[in-house]
Specification:
There is one protein chain. Helix 1 packs across helix 11. This protein has three domains: 140 residues, ATP-grasp fold, B domain (D-amino Acid Aminotransferase, Chain A, domain 1, 2-Layer Sandwich); 75 residues, 2-Layer Sandwich (Dna Ligase, domain 1); 61 residues, no CATH class. The two termini are 27 Å apart. It is an alpha+beta fold. It contains eleven helices and 14 strands. It is globular and about 60 Å long. A five-stranded antiparallel beta sheet has the order 12-9-8-13-14. Helices cover 36% and strands 23% of the residues. Keywords: ATP-binding, Ligase, Nucleotide-binding.
């Protein structure tokens, strides 16, 4: 059974609730509490967040605008649209305008879909050819993309429920470590197989053009054999769903960053959120940061896979969510 469904089924049994899970995909479920109240869930999406706030969080451009207006240090960027939208919208910004804006910001820049999740097609772009390649790939599946300034820093997620930070961890992009005998593709296949044992969908695509480009920039290929202990980074985005790794910092997060995560969640009108920021170190007092985005349906399977302690934290979170939903 999928991770979220299995955890919810376990907790529901403990609190006397009944769970009905759609059997084919095991993503969607219906929960009936002892008091007769009912709720549904869709993988990591619960009725704990308001519909409007959750939708706002999904649109990276709108949430950036509002959070920036409230004084948070958001990424600098603009939205650009495909030809179909440009023909309908007054004063449209098209794919070519996006390239001009990228040059104005200064290369490299980040190009990403407006409202997709899981790090899909998030790409660090260094030149014109790369820009148009990724822009066209994004426009093949949705109508808008964001071009934003590239920021240097470590990637962290702060997981918040109401006034409590449930977990905090650093996210490290997909990489492999050389053993002196295996090729990069062999190491990557082994890593993908290990990650799939978690029971959630891992989006490590061996045909991902971003991996090829990162290898090329390092004068490597899938057939290269890397020396023992040498780490090769394959993606620029640090999403755990694309094979990234997590370092748990829950017990060491500084109070400044706890407060930041809680305030951002509240100001988005959310109760549950994964707040993603770039900074040097969340265990030290806050001096500078860049808010990447706010996720209203954070996935936790990869964090829980770090160990029993982390799994217990996830169970604690889901137990609290169900208790709040039962109260209504």
């Amino acid at each position: 059974m999928r991770f979220t469904a299995s955890i919810l089924q376990k907790i529901a049994t403990e609190i006397g609730a009944k769970v009905l899970i759609e059997p084919e995909y095991e993503l969607i479920g219906h929960i009936t509490f002892r008091n007769g109240k009912r709720t549904v869930f869709d993988n990591t999406r619960f009725n704990i967040n308001g519909f409007g706030s959750a939708n706002l969080a999904q649109d990276k451009a709108f949430s950036n605008y509002f959070l920036g207006s409230l004084g948070y240090r958001v990424t600098e960027g603009k939205t650009f649209f495909n030809d179909k939208i440009c023909r309908k919208v007054a004063n449209p910004r098209n794919i070519d305008d996006g390239w001009q804006y990228a040059k104005k910001l200064g290369l490299p820049v980040i190009v990403k879909p407006l409202n997709l999740s899981l790090g899909v097609l998030v790409t660090k772009v260094h030149n014109k050819n790369e820009y148009y390649e990724v822009a066209k790939k994004i426009f093949n599946i949705q109508s808008a993309l964001i071009v934003e300034r590239f920021y240097i820093g470590n990637d962290f997620r702060i997981l918040v429920l109401d006034n409590e930070v449930i977990a905090a961890y650093q996210r490290i992009p997909l990489s492999v470590m050389g053993d002196g005998k295996s090729t990069i593709v062999e190491l990557l296949k082994t890593k993908r197989e290990d990650l799939l044992k978690i029971g959630e969908k891992i989006l490590i695509d061996l045909a991902d053009f971003r991996i090829f480009k990162n290898l090329e920039k390092q004068n490597l290929s899938f057939q290269s054999v890397v020396s023992q202990g040498i780490v090769v980074y394959l993606l620029d985005n640090a999403n755990l769903s694309t094979g990234g790794q997590a370092i748990d910092l829950t017990e060491n997060i500084h109070a400044d960053f706890e407060k930041l995560g809680i305030n951002i969640t509240k100001d988005m009108g959310l109760r549950l959120a994964g707040v993603d920021i770039l900074t040097q170190d969340i265990t030290q007092p806050l001096t500078d940061y860049t808010l990447l985005e706010v996720n209203s349906a954070p996935g936790l399977a990869h964090y829980a896979s770090l160990g029993e302690k982390q799994r217990q934290q996830v169970e604690y979170l889901y137990r609290k969510i169900l208790q709040e939903l039962e109260k209504g």
